[in-house]
């Protein structure tokens, strides 16, 4: 009986293995040879591309044909280099490959391979009678010029941001880091979009385990399209269901390079103006690149002010709701009378009053962000004043709550990272609800749930709450305040190369 079960189990395993192999074979693209005949070659290419209007065919000679997709190739290189040299070369694919004086030239004997290259900006040379083509990559993607970052502005420091061109972004990074150890590995994702991306890191500084993790997660992805780097960050992070970002999205080349120099892994996606840095801990989202450009006492004060503003943004409105609903005894006597007079004509309980105002603030913020710049600023300022004044006169809310909600909204904008700023604004709502139901006990429940979630999070397997958990006491002060440059360790806490640490231990910093 047991032998029979064992045989059935082995048969099922063999069937599963055969099904997997069959599925893998079906997923692999079939090898389609290139027709030696010129007319059949053009017919095959047109069928593959479904005869698009921007498909260009140019007959260089009786036996030589040049095909490409219009607006994807560099016309200057095509006319001045490719066509000029094709008239002077022997009509053999190997001879053409050796003659063309451009960086990327290859000889391909597979139809699907050169079709993909052509859609990425390659010109294809076919010689009648040969089942090979010469692929000359002369892509010329249109991209906007370099401009100042819009979402991560700073007063002191670089004023150049990434654009949507992968090559331009990598060149910006290499201008900052002229180091032969800067590694650049390219990948292609998306069955439909074939989006190119680059994984960058500095060999000897970044931890090998994190590098392998990032590359493995990218390789394992099976997606139809990839348009923006924010989508990739959500696909490869440790917990995509969490509201907290575990990878930094930045449009600043200087911040990106600073992360690479501290041991992080960077990802640049073609078509996106935001670079990805990982692993990134919770405390690092509240640190700005400009902190390094300011004198350390000023930078430390601003960083402490930023942390204080975050606490105000999250807890000020819930404390107001809890105090007025359950805990009048904590309100000072001189403040109790003005509060009572302010809320005397308000028909709603504090929780409803607070939620209405918070939603109005969020509506104004969203409307201001989506409208054109000049109109958005007017809507934000005028709308806030008009709605706030009308709400008080109509008896919907009190003057004090308007001040509290406005102060909380203003404090949330001090967060230097846009993604984390959105998180700070959203988590206020469940805390307000818990404060309205259970008072200070509800606030403490929310804090406990929040801390448990943060302590369980990881970023590429590294603790999200480093250096506070697990505790690394030597790194605590520099995480909260900014020490002088001579005392700052260049590598981040959660992405440190142990080999480099052992080599650097015992060495003193000298001016």
From TrEMBL:
Signal peptide feature range: none
InterPro entries noted in UniProt: Spore_Ger (IPR004995), UPF0353/GerABKA_families (IPR050768)
Residue spans of biased composition, Basic and acidic residues class: 1-35
One CC-aspect GO term: membrane
Alphabetized UniProt keyword annotations: Membrane, Transmembrane, Transmembrane helix
Region (Disordered): 1-37
Transmembrane segment boundaries: 304-324, 375-394, 431-455
Top-rank lineage group of the source organism: Bacteria
Listed GO biological process terms: spore germination
PANTHER family according to UniProt: LEUCINE ZIPPER PROTEIN 4 (PTHR22550:SF5), SPORE GERMINATION PROTEIN (PTHR22550)
Family: Belongs to the GerABKA family.
Protein name per UniProt: Spore germination protein
């Amino acid at each position: 009986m047991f032998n029979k079960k064992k045989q059935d189990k082995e048969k099922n395993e063999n069937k599963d293995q055969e099904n997997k192999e069959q599925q893998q074979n079906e997923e692999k693209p079939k090898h389609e040879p290139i027709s030696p005949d010129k007319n059949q070659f053009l017919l095959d290419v047109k069928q593959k591309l479904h005869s698009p209007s921007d498909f260009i065919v140019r007959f260089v000679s009786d036996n030589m044909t040049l095909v490409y997709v219009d607006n994807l190739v560099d016309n200057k290189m095509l006319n001045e280099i490719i066509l000029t040299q094709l008239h002077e070369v022997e009509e053999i694919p190997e001879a053409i490959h050796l003659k063309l004086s451009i960086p990327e030239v290859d000889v391909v004997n597979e139809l699907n391979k050169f079709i993909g290259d052509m859609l990425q900006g390659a010109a294809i040379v076919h010689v009648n009678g040969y089942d090979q083509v010469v692929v000359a990559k002369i892509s010329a993607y249109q991209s906007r010029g370099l401009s100042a970052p819009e979402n991560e502005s700073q007063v002191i420091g670089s004023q150049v941001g990434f654009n949507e061109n992968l090559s331009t972004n990598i060149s910006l990074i290499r201008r900052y880091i002229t180091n032969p150890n800067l590694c650049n590995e390219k990948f292609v994702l998306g069955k439909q979009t074939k989006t190119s991306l680059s994984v960058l890191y500095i060999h000897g500084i970044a931890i090998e385990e994190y590098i392998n993790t990032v590359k493995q997660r990218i390789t394992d992805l099976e997606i139809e399209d990839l348009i923006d780097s924010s989508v990739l960050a959500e696909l490869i992070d440790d917990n995509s269901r969490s509201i907290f970002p575990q990878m930094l999205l930045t449009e600043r080349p200087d911040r990106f390079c600073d992360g690479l120099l501290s041991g992080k892994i960077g990802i640049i996606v073609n078509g996106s103006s935001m670079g990805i840095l990982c692993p990134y801990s919770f405390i690092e989202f509240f640190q700005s690149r400009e902190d390094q450009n300011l004198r350390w006492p000023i930078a430390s004060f601003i960083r402490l002010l930023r942390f204080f503003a975050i606490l105000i943004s999250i807890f000020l409105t819930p404390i107001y709701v809890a105090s007025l609903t359950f805990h009048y005894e904590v309100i000072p006597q001189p403040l109790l009378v003005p509060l009572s007079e302010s809320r005397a004509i308000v028909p709603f309980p504090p929780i409803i009053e607070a939620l209405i105002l918070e939603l109005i603030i969020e509506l104004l913020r969203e409307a201001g962000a989506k409208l054109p710049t000049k109109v958005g600023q007017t809507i934000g300022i005028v709308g806030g004043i008009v709605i706030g004044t009308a709400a008080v006169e109509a008896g919907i809310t009190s003057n004090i709550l308007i001040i509290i909600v406005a102060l909380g909204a203003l404090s949330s904008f001090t967060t230097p990272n846009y993604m984390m700023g959105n998180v700070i604004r959203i988590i206020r709502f469940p805390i307000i609800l818990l404060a309205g139901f259970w008072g200070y006990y509800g606030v403490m429940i929310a804090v406990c749930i929040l801390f448990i979630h943060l302590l369980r999070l990881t970023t590429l397997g590294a603790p999200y709450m480093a250096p506070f958990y697990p505790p690394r006491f030597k790194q605590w002060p520099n995480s909260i305040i900014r020490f002088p440059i001579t005392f700052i360790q260049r590598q981040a806490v959660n992405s440190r190369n142990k080999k480099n640490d052992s080599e650097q231990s015992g060495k003193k910093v000298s001016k």
